[in-house]
């Protein structure tokens, strides 16, 4: 899918959101570093998650995938909402075996003894049948054998260190690259990292400047890059203003070293909530991280402990459907955790400030249109929310100021410029600063052409906005496969209309 034209057809209905990309990355890596077998799920095989799975298998982990199934039990949820039948849930007492789930209303797999139930047709379904509903991805190319739009449980057995250099293609996944460099170094594995798109242009200097002081050799300063040597314990002084991903990578690696370590931040930490996700998931796998006034203390050595981890739904992806409800409509979302460690849950408070009628009713998040008003949004800790919130702001009364947004310029594209350019093309008033946007809402936008810049969040934000306008052409629509390969299927199920050109 390259270019699409979005027709006017606002979204309404009910949706089960995909699992959190941030949580999936972290849980897969923790499981791979554990002795014994862990089960992680549900996972969705987006491009970025495939890259992390392939990375841990390159380092010697064994990963098997099982089809993930859910079904309805609550009659009040079995009826379709505006023609949309939500995905199911099952009660815990129906689960005969397999991972333990926490609390009724969580998505559950079929019991292990239920046999193989594969829905749909085509090579994927046949492959799953032939492999007895399991496959070892150490010898399997995920891109060729699995539909990214299906949910799976991943059974992961800890790393058995390879004797040869590990070849890790991160494609466009910054998380995979920045998480796995220190992990490979802590294991003493020689590794060669490659990437594509804008990833080779994204910063690596925090590692290439700091890790050589702790036993790691780099072949250069940017991708493609090879590492050798073994990471050593000690004090790590890190610039916290570039990306929290560098710190997360170290938090995975440092507990495994002989001796304790500390991370001291030389500048204020950006996106601190992502570090909170890391620490929370590390705790589930038996790793203790201590916060200090200026960073983190990491006791060592520690051992990762295998466990079964249920991945909660993704608050960053909820923002696109909240965007739609804010502009006009009614959306019900299943799967979100009301008390989530994900920092992007901040979208709730921001949407409320802007006037959206949004609240939980049991386990369902209800979002309804109300008259929108401008506000001030600090992007420091929520960069992934900005495309969706900026799109909604274009149809709010008054001005919306987005501040502290400079880091959006070093994402999959220069998101700050991409958002400004796209909104202007549709008739919004936008002033772009070095690290800010000022958006003046208008009563009516018009159709136009949007450059998606091969950025999944730009494409999704403008697809949703386009559903309220019509005649919006978006390039690089296939970029959604990076994080949310089912996006356009869900978009269509909620009433959205588009044509591929």
Describe the structure.
With 501 residues, the chain is α/β, with parallel strands linked by helices. The chain folds into two domains: 4-16 and 313-500, Enolpyruvate transferase domain (UDP-n-acetylglucosamine1-carboxyvinyl-transferase, Chain, Alpha-beta prism); 21-69 and 117-310, Enolpyruvate transferase domain (UDP-n-acetylglucosamine1-carboxyvinyl-transferase, Chain, Alpha-beta prism), CATH 3.65.10. The chain contains 15 helices and 24 strands. The chain has helices at residues 21-32, 47-58, 75-78, 123-130, 142-145, 174-187, 205-210, 244-253, 272-284, 315-327, 347-353, 386-393, 415-425, 456-466, 487-493; strands at residues 4-7, 12-16, 37-44, 62-67, 151-157, 166-169, 191-194, 216-218, 225-229, 235-238, 261-265, 290-292, 295-298, 308-310, 330-334, 357-361, 364-368, 376-378, 399-403, 429-432, 437-440, 448-450, 472-474, 497-500. It has a four-stranded mixed β-sheet with strand order 22-23-1-24. It has a four-stranded mixed β-sheet with strand order 2-15-17-16, covered by helices on one side. Strand 10, helix 8 (244-253) and strand 11 (261-265) form a beta-alpha-beta unit. The longest helix has 14 residues, at 174-187.
């Amino acid at each position: 899918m390259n270019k699409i034209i979005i027709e006017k057809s606002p979204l309404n209905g009910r949706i089960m959101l995909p699992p959190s990309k941030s949580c999936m990355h972290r849980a897969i890596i923790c499981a791979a570093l554990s002795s014994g077998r862990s089960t992680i799920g549900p996972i969705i095989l987006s491009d970025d998650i495939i890259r992390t799975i392939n990375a841990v298998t390159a380092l010697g982990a064994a990963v098997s995938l099982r089809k993930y199934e859910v079904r309805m039990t609550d009659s009040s949820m079995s009826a379709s909402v505006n023609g949309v039948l939500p995905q199911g849930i099952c009660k815990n007492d129906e689960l005969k075996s397999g991972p333990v789930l926490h609390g009724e209303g969580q998505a559950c797999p079929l019991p292990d003894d239920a046999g193989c139930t594969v829905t749909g047709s085509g090579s994927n379904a046949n492959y799953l049948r032939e492999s007895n509903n399991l496959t070892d991805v150490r010898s399997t190319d995920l891109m060729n054998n699995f539909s990214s739009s299906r949910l799976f449980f991943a059974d992961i057995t800890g790393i058995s260190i390879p004797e040869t250099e590990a070849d890790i293609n991160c494609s466009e996944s910054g998380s995979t690259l920045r998480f796995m460099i220190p992990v490979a170094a802590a294991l003493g594995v020689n590794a060669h990292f490659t990437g594509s798109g804008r990833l080779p242009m994204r910063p690596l200097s925090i590692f290439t400047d700091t890790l050589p002081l702790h036993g790691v050799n780099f072949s250069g300063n940017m991708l493609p890059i090879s590492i050798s040597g073994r990471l050593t314990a000690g004090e790590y002084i890190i610039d916290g203003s570039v990306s929290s991903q560098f710190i997360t990578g170290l938090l995975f690696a440092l507990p495994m070293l002989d001796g304790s370590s500390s991370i001291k931040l030389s500048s204020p930490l950006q996106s601190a909530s992502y570090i909170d996700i890391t620490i929370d998931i590390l705790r589930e796998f038996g790793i203790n991280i201590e916060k200090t006034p200026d960073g983190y203390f990491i006791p060592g050595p520690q051992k990762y402990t295998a466990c079964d981890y249920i991945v909660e739904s993704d608050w960053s992806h909820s923002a696109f459907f909240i965007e739609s409800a804010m502009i006009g409509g009614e959306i019900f979302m299943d799967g979100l955790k009301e008390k989530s460690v994900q920092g992007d849950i901040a979208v709730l408070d921001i949407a409320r400030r802007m006037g959206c009628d949004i609240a939980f009713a049991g386990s369902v998040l209800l979002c309804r249109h109300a008259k929108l008003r401008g506000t001030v949004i600090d992007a420091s800790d929520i960069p992934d929310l900005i495309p969706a919130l900026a799109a909604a702001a274009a149809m709010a009364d008054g001005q919306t100021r987005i501040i502290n947004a400079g880091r959006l310029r070093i994402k999959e594209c220069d998101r700050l410029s991409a958002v400004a350019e796209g909104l202007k093309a549709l008739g919004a008033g936008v002033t772009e600063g070095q690290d800010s946007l000022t958006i003046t809402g208008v009563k009516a936008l018009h159709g136009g052409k949007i450059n998606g810049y091969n950025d999944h969040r730009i494409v999704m934000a403008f697809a949703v906005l386009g559903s309220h306008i019509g005649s919006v052409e978006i390039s690089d629509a296939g970029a959604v496969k990076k994080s949310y390969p089912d996006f356009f299927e869900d978009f269509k199920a909620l009433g959205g209309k588009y044509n591929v050109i």
